[in-house]
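By way of example, what follows is a protein record of this kind.
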Amino acid sequence: MLPERTSSKARRTRATIIDAALALFREKGFEETTMREVADRAGLAVGAAYYHFRTKDEILLALYEGTIDNSLERARFKSAKSADFADRVRDALDFRLAQLRPYKDFLGPLAGHALIPGSPLSPFAQETEEIRMRELALFEEIIHGSSLKVALEFKSHLPRFLWLYQMSVISFWLRDQSPSQERTERLIGLSLSLIMKLFAVTRVPVLRQANGLILALLQLAAGPDASAERRVASA
């Protein structure tokens, strides 16, 4: 979890720093921009900028974090309009990518932290647990009251599975250089169709002996802290 700065003045300062950083990232590029330049552009002393963000990567993480509340609001709106599970998931992915699209060129370094063991900015790190919990709440909203039909033993794992699926889509999208990211659009369509077929298979009696293997894979992908996360998310 990033350092919490909750006062209204602190929130305004953080927003000013983020805006200044994004402007510089566009002008100079992410790697070439320094925290001192960000502080100067924001009209702050360097120490004041470091108080809110220790690195440029943390600024990108805060930018990403800001999309979660918007996504949750969107999911609630979509849930009220449609019970179709696949439609809800597709809308959530499209909406998240639309929010990130203006910053696509800057988010690559942040995505790289997912592959660095022990990185405090990794989506799997203890430091980013609060963000992870909010993402799981988003996918619980998508699942709740939907048309999804899946074997009962999988239900507690689905928010984590969808979170991992979303991260995979975002990672692919960040590297997608096709016109209008059309390859990502095709990836979402094909993968979501496959996921829906797999969910349906879990309820077929003659094929349910495979459920144990699928569940073991989900638990392995979820990692050792997944059960604790499910308890927190359901509290």
